[in-house]
Amino acid sequence: MRWIKFTAEGRTAYGILEGDRIAEVAGDPFAGYETTSRRHDLAAVKIEVPLIPRTFYAAGLNYVEHVIEGAKKRGETPNIPTKADIGYRAVNALIAHGENVVIPADAGEKIHYEGEIVAVIGKKAKNLSEAEALSCVMGWTIGNDVSERTWQKNDRTFWRGKNTDTFKPMGPWIDTDFDMEAATTNVRLNGEIRTSFATGHMLFSTAHFISVMTRYLTLWPGDVIWLGTDGVSPDLKHGDVVDVEITGLGNLRNTFVREGL
Amino acid sequence: MRWIKFTAEGRTAYGILEGDRIAEVAGDPFAGYETTSRRHDLAAVKIEVPLIPRTFYAAGLNYVEHVIEGAKKRGETPNIPTKADIGYRAVNALIAHGENVVIPADAGEKIHYEGEIVAVIGKKAKNLSEAEALSCVMGWTIGNDVSERTWQKNDRTFWRGKNTDTFKPMGPWIDTDFDMEAATTNVRLNGEIRTSFATGHMLFSTAHFISVMTRYLTLWPGDVIWLGTDGVSPDLKHGDVVDVEITGLGNLRNTFVREGL
Fold first, then answer.
1. Are residues A219 and B92, on separate chains, in Cβ contact within 8 Å?
2. Contacts of B160 in chain A (CB under 8 A)
3. Is B98 left (phi over 0), alpha (psi -120 to 50) or beta?
4. pLDDT per residue over A206-223, tens digit each?
5. CB distance from B60 to chain A under 8 Å?
6. Is A36 in the B-facing interface, judged by CB distances under 8 Å?
7. DSSP run (H or E) holding B112
8. pLDDT in tens, B182-231
């Protein structure tokens, strides 16, 4: 089942996607819903960010090649994480499928994409074993962890480098039946595949992260966990279109524009 | 005016505090409210966390003595921030005035308090000058940025060291008329003042933070900015009671208990 949040006829609502039609619901997938008789064409609605997370978790470094290539680019020794220490991103930066990533006028040239699989939490969870960890996941979506590498390197935190407004595209929908093991993440720049990796080949699995995290913290319905990326991005320029496709799940498309151009 | 969130007679609501009485409202201070005829004794209600932030910002290092003494304790050279780079904390960790901070059984001995003034954002804001920055602040509350220093030092992120469940007491209420310049932050351990500093003597003022932040990000109603602490904390033990008083604003009291004792 695919959950989509959308605006149509001046109203923002959740719906269930059936092919290219949306069955609008009253309520939401977290607190409960009822189906309505309203139907919409997917092509005719404005797709919204699928949810505003309660807490926005992000694994950061969770695929080997990304760690090695990133370190090489910075002239550093790769520091492959030995523990599943989760990080954070900020809600202000979220935008929907189809919206523009706006690069501030004073940003550097190293603007990079990071295509990521995102776990959406549906149930309150604490102290889950790795075997039962995925029981709190209600579905999966796609994220693009856009980064300005100069700020990321030189600021004391990731506040601008990772969390500038519009730097966190997420969507287009939440899929409750996604099969991670069969999936490939393909990132296209202006239509051409530039990064491709097996979505499930992580350093630490989603189940491992959830099990470790819930020893110390409670996961809540509406939390999201972005699970990291592999490979490296070219420097993105004004007008570039980036598609993050995860096979069997969907495609998240955003255009990058530079402020003031 | 003081806004308080509370539970009484099985209902959680916002109210306006008048002396030791609460005038219950329908709605909230962010989206709008109407006063009701219901009144409660402050002493008879359960005080709740004053709000669940949309984004939970934290200045981290923002008072000179805290930076210097912290570095000394770790045997490092003090690294006083030269820029107002904001950080983040996590919503899962919030607890209310009067609730227990629960130290995990496997935590180390270096459990520390950090008494902080907290700005509560009431209006959407982008690109505010320093002169107009405080116009988006609807009020002020108190936070205790509880920290486990061994995890804080050794983990790749602050996920356990700062954001373990219960590590972020906030409250007891939001004061819309607070005068920062006249205020002192007093932190008491079991009734005795152990840390005391001028609340407003920050490295970077609230207005400066907001002005810098809103060059890159949008502040939203319900965001909070924790503004850092001064001084150092003794190691806290099972049964310790910590009061963070900010004069003219209120007192945030929490008891520390160690899991499994």
1. yes
2. 85, 216
3. left
4. 999 999 999 999 999 999
5. yes
6. no
7. strand B111-112
8. 999 999 999 999 999 999 999 999 999 999 999 999 999 999 999 999 98
